[in-house]
């Protein structure tokens, strides 16, 4: 759930998504769901090379086909992210002990 | 999976994991993201022939195989001259790191 929450903080930011078929899509993050499916608005793609993306403004990307998401460093609070991941790791360790 | 809700009834472009592109009216979808397109067609791109539009009338696409669903901007779409477009097929998103 950590990355779901993390990506929710990036809504309205401009991100670059690289898909597993090597296509890069730049766009404004509209929304994200639990599977990390993304919705982008005002997308920019190299349509010379990939005319498949002509005439598209808003796009829904299936999370399983995403390879990388490039972020602007200024939009990421690394300290907060480190903290959150430690807390999540602690919580899941606690769950394992409690579940025995 | 609320993401596709606002595309219902609209003309969409669906990219599949084998690199094919389908256009159609988004008639419905389910929790596995299987989707149904009506009045659909497949656009086949190639380097030596202009784009072929193949009528498929209606189609159900398995959610697993979907890469992206994009909402078509009708005004832009009208100005696209597919009969003048030559392009390579997209790569598959499967086993994307495999070196051939």
UniProtKB/TrEMBL annotation, chain A:
<feature type="domain" description="Sm">
    <location>
        <begin position="2"/>
        <end position="75"/>
    </location>
</feature>
<dbReference type="GO" id="GO:0071013">
    <property type="term" value="C:catalytic step 2 spliceosome"/>
</dbReference>
<dbReference type="GO" id="GO:0000932">
    <property type="term" value="C:P-body"/>
</dbReference>
<dbReference type="GO" id="GO:0071011">
    <property type="term" value="C:precatalytic spliceosome"/>
</dbReference>
<dbReference type="GO" id="GO:0003723">
    <property type="term" value="F:RNA binding"/>
</dbReference>
<keyword id="KW-0687">Ribonucleoprotein</keyword>
<dbReference type="GO" id="GO:0000398">
    <property type="term" value="P:mRNA splicing, via spliceosome"/>
</dbReference>
<dbReference type="GO" id="GO:1990726">
    <property type="term" value="C:Lsm1-7-Pat1 complex"/>
</dbReference>
<dbReference type="GO" id="GO:0005688">
    <property type="term" value="C:U6 snRNP"/>
</dbReference>
<keyword id="KW-0694">RNA-binding</keyword>
<keyword id="KW-0507">mRNA processing</keyword>
<dbReference type="Pfam" id="PF01423">
    <property type="entry name" value="LSM"/>
</dbReference>
<dbReference type="InterPro" id="IPR016654">
    <property type="entry name" value="U6_snRNA_Lsm2"/>
</dbReference>
<keyword id="KW-0539">Nucleus</keyword>
<dbReference type="InterPro" id="IPR047575">
    <property type="entry name" value="Sm"/>
</dbReference>
<dbReference type="GO" id="GO:0046540">
    <property type="term" value="C:U4/U6 x U5 tri-snRNP complex"/>
</dbReference>
<keyword id="KW-0508">mRNA splicing</keyword>
<comment type="similarity">
    <text>Belongs to the snRNP Sm proteins family.</text>
</comment>
<keyword id="KW-0747">Spliceosome</keyword>
<dbReference type="InterPro" id="IPR010920">
    <property type="entry name" value="LSM_dom_sf"/>
</dbReference>
<protein>
    <submittedName>
        <fullName>Sm-like protein</fullName>
    </submittedName>
</protein>
<dbReference type="InterPro" id="IPR001163">
    <property type="entry name" value="Sm_dom_euk/arc"/>
</dbReference>
Automatic annotation (TrEMBL), chain B:
<comment type="function">
    <text>Plays role in pre-mRNA splicing as component of the U4/U6-U5 tri-snRNP complex that is involved in spliceosome assembly, and as component of the precatalytic spliceosome (spliceosome B complex). The heptameric LSM2-8 complex binds specifically to the 3'-terminal U-tract of U6 snRNA.</text>
</comment>
<feature type="domain" description="Sm">
    <location>
        <begin position="1"/>
        <end position="75"/>
    </location>
</feature>
<protein>
    <recommendedName>
        <fullName>LSM2-LSM8 complex subunit LSM8</fullName>
    </recommendedName>
</protein>
<dbReference type="InterPro" id="IPR001163">
    <property type="entry name" value="Sm_dom_euk/arc"/>
</dbReference>
<comment type="subunit">
    <text>LSm subunits form a heteromer with a doughnut shape.</text>
</comment>
<dbReference type="Pfam" id="PF01423">
    <property type="entry name" value="LSM"/>
</dbReference>
<dbReference type="InterPro" id="IPR010920">
    <property type="entry name" value="LSM_dom_sf"/>
</dbReference>
<dbReference type="GO" id="GO:0003729">
    <property type="term" value="F:mRNA binding"/>
</dbReference>
<keyword id="KW-0687">Ribonucleoprotein</keyword>
<dbReference type="GO" id="GO:0005688">
    <property type="term" value="C:U6 snRNP"/>
</dbReference>
<keyword id="KW-0694">RNA-binding</keyword>
<dbReference type="GO" id="GO:0071011">
    <property type="term" value="C:precatalytic spliceosome"/>
</dbReference>
<dbReference type="InterPro" id="IPR034103">
    <property type="entry name" value="Lsm8"/>
</dbReference>
<comment type="similarity">
    <text>Belongs to the snRNP Sm proteins family.</text>
</comment>
<keyword id="KW-0508">mRNA splicing</keyword>
<keyword id="KW-0507">mRNA processing</keyword>
<dbReference type="InterPro" id="IPR044642">
    <property type="entry name" value="PTHR15588"/>
</dbReference>
<dbReference type="InterPro" id="IPR047575">
    <property type="entry name" value="Sm"/>
</dbReference>
<dbReference type="GO" id="GO:0046540">
    <property type="term" value="C:U4/U6 x U5 tri-snRNP complex"/>
</dbReference>
<keyword id="KW-0539">Nucleus</keyword>
<dbReference type="GO" id="GO:0000398">
    <property type="term" value="P:mRNA splicing, via spliceosome"/>
</dbReference>
<keyword id="KW-0747">Spliceosome</keyword>
